[in-house]
Description:
Blueprint: H1 3-36, H2 42-54, H3 57-68, H4 73-80, H5 89-113, H6 117-125, H7 130-141, H8 143-158, H9 162-167, H10 178-188, H11 191-217
Helix pairs in contact: 1-5, 1-8, 2-5, 5-8, 6-7, 8-11, 10-11
Amino acid sequence: MNADDVGLIAFTLGVSALAVALALPLGLGIGWLLARRNWPGKHLVETIVMLPLVVPPVVTGLVLLKLFGRRGPLGAWLDHQGIDVIFTWKAVVLALAIMAFPLLLRCIRTAFEEIPRHLEEAAMTLGMSPWTTFWRVSIPLARRGIAAGLVLGFARALGEFGATIMVAGLIPGTTETLPLAIYRSFQAGDDSRLWMLAGVSAIIAFAALWIAGRLTRGRTL
Length: 221
């Protein structure tokens, strides 16, 4: 493993961690609303946010490309602000966050649903506001589920390929992640690098799944 491969792995780990960190606040908000409230359009919102889990990743990448391209509704505004997204590291983070979000959200929602409502109600009876109850009661009780969601979302981000290559391209040293490097090594016929990177990817994925499993099994209220 040379310095370039170490840098590639570090970049992949870094953008994956950043992606799930950016997705976390939205996941907490939507997860709590889905678990604790009934409101018009709830099923529609739930369906939309889960779409990246079931549609082909290249379709998600195509949608992001149209939205954040320089002629897209969001991309045009960002371009006016002097911010480039498409085919930069920002596009990598965006694609990974979108693809990791459904798994993150599912774990968070389940964690909130498992909290006995009477504990939250008791906190508000004692004078806590809903916002304070959320941060001082709900979040601590759901911490293991939230942590499991972060780990699973991180693992999903690490393995993302289709959406990333659509919206960020395969630019070595700029937007190339571990899965894209594996693909490029396969095309180039570089078997030694291919299997080395595949092994690293499998080890990281195994560790993430093992940690998520431990967090889930150890969840207590």
